[in-house]
## 1
Amino acid sequence: MALVSFVIPAYNTECHIGRPLRSLMQQTLRDFEIIIIDDGSSDKTKEKAERILMEEKFDNYTIISQMNSGVSSARNRGLKIAKGEYAAFLDADDYVRQDLVEKINKMVTKNTFDIILWKFGVVDPEGRYCNAPSRIFSYAMKESNKELIIQVMKF
């Protein structure tokens, strides 16, 4: 079983799908699966995703094509087949730091959490941070005893 299942809903994202996939291919810990739900794209989103994953020789992925049903439907479909201990939604134009899976692994090695959140940044098309409202928090919750544990993942 994978540590994290990355569910990526995709609708006509041929021009963007490479960035999140490449960021996942650069992970320092490859204990994850990728689930792409092609939500009725009329472009070559699915073909581009398959090509990138095959070039990277990454075989722990699933691509499902469905009729356009919206992002929520695509996410729900991905969750139904996710095998990871944790599931993370990644939009087709997002990307993650290369040590995200490693940091999640370190966090859950110490404790078992039901929910993990982490900080994120807003960037412009060139990758520069924008002056957006601060979203600098990270926490995890243990449902078993309703304990809220604050742990800032330093990036």
## 2
Amino acid sequence: MQGAGNDYVYIDCFKTPIETLGDISNLAIKISDRHFGVGSDGLVLIMPSNNGADVRMRMFNADGSEAQMCGNASRCVARYAIDNGIVDKPEFLLQTKLSNKQITVQPNGKITVNMGCPEILEHNVVSVSNSEYHYTAVSMGNPHCVIFVDNVKDFPVKEIGSIIEVHKNFPEKTNVEFAHVLNDGNIEMRVWERGAGETLACGTGACATLTAAAINGLTSEKALLKLRGGNLEILWNKSDNNIYMTGDAEVVFYGEFLIK
């Protein structure tokens, strides 16, 4: 499935017991390989909840590391759960490693996820390749470093993002967003994801970018985030201080993977 081009392989662990999967981190590495595996940004397990939510997800990056949360994957899990009868209501709770997330399926089929409260960590400067980059660090349960640039299309995301990801300022590594504010309601961005490299989209990254833009006075608390794989509607609702992300989720294909 893919959400805004963020593509993951999903395993229905209601049908395939997790005990049969072996070393899940190793499986994520193999299955994500775009030449010798299926090819994806990572692996997501759709599971029964163990804390009272309606459905649970576990998400592994392409390098085998387990992530706390993935916004685009959460919409895809919601789509699968609705389409396959795991849940039968338009509003329900999704359990993630980070916390339970409120899911709402809109009448137009788009899915909204309450991504929770953003945490603004710091404003700082990082030096890379003889250049200084001012950034705003934001946590959406996972770390983000948001940098505003004049031309995101031609920006050397791999060169700069790969260095900042592992910079000493970020002891747990970080996702890195490069963003260009087009106007008050539109932001263009690219993302270097921790453990995955540049991806076509990142839901938590889009939320972090809107947060950084708003607190720096570059936009209001609502904008359309234009990513390489598609658009995400992000709203920072100041009444409850939560970020709401709305977007599509699409099944691409079903198949079998032989575990060797």
## 3
Amino acid sequence: MNYGELIGDAFRITLRNRYLWFFGFFAGGSTGFNVPTNIPTGGGNFNPDDFQSSSMMLSAVQVGQGLGTGILIAGIVLIALILALFFIFMSIVSQGALADSVAAIDRGDRRSFGTTFRSGMGNFWRVLGYFVVFILIGIGLLLVIGIPVALVIVGTLAATQAVGARIAVIAVVVILAVLALIVVFVPLSIIGQYALREIVVRRERVLGSLGSGYGIFRRNIGRSLLILLIQFGISIGIAIAFFLALLIVGLVLFIPTIALAVAGISTGAWIAGGIALIILIPLLLVATGAIGTFSHAYWTLAYLRVTAAAAPPTAAPSPTI
């Protein structure tokens, strides 16, 4: 496999098909109250009826405020839930859409935003099943690793009162647990990448894709780990470049805000800061979409190259006599 060509193809597909960035982005009451008007105004005369009426009004105001606060909190929770469900839905759609479209573009097919979105919708339920299965597998593996670790730590704390022994045992157990997590979840992440493409590109069933993804990884362990290592290095480089670009662009955009704030013009500083945010946020969204698209394209192309290299050569037709 030519890894330089793999990276170049992923960049090329990302730059030439900018509509994919949309999918890459996801694949990452006030209450008022009336002042009571029957407040006693007598010249020092205390009227128990007025006091009782004012107390009742105050209680009603407090109840109204509590009810309004509860409605406000419920509304915020509902909006947050709707947004979370929307992002989950779009993430599932985008995973299938990107895998299928990148594979099609690599074959030389033409794709558009509409065909990509329809592809994601067509793979929605199988990709959803894939995520559910992998989440359950991840939880199961965490329990397999975490329960013995917890039992050893609890047993050590109960067996000895020596601080040094406790610290030594816990440190060793934590180190072993971290190593176990790396050994288990690094291959699982690679298998998950392959399994997703098996579902979308090869139209494999969810459970069948797990076995296929594991088989691809087992036959290409070194190559798969190198693909992951290269992606890790690229991700570090992209993160550094993204941070520096964000710092430079943010500084340029917020220079008027800083100048107005130093001059003591708070209103102008707020307005300038708002305008800078309006410009900066879309740039961040676009950059995030492009990075997500590249990462997804990289793994899709890596999957295609690995499976193509592992496929047995086609036998040449025997000459007719």
## 4
Amino acid sequence: MPTQTPAATQKQHVELWRKLKLRNSLLSRANPAGAIYVPFIGDGDIADACYSERQIYGADLDPKRVATAQKRLSDAQVIVGDCDDWPFAGRAVEPVSVADFDAYGNPYKGFLSFWRQAPKFFPMVCFFTDGLRLRVQRGDVVWDWATQKAITSESPNQARAQFNFWFKRHALPYVQQIVTPHRIIDTKFYLRRHMVYWGCVIDQ
């Protein structure tokens, strides 16, 4: 099923200030001529705080949150769409130099579709809110990147190793594989419990 933001009655962010600090630490590295792509835009609060001076293309499955984001970001193009895919397929979109996948669950399906289909400017900065590490914390499953599904682990040690080295040995190499022959030249990340929040600079 497509990844959605939480229902409109639920709190969308925990420690929003940390998300904003992460974004502000890397945004100056992006090509200033590029647009901003914000899937899972929710109410548009991150976009409003970080990207309001640039052209924004946003999407979300929740029509109420799309309406809220569009009202907040009057010059943006915000649509109802499946952010696990490229929701702007068939629409005219300016080249993107910042993409912000604040997906909570799996941001990488949407990133793969974006990378394959969207026009891009470099250097590019991308952000990910990664909840997949939560899947492997119990020790009975590991994440299979090829199928984008949790599968039964061979042993608790296999799951524990994936959990303990999730970012450097799994998430980061997966994104690098997608963007090759481009290169990830810098990263920043932080952990909150079992969640991973990170950003990277991608260049040619």
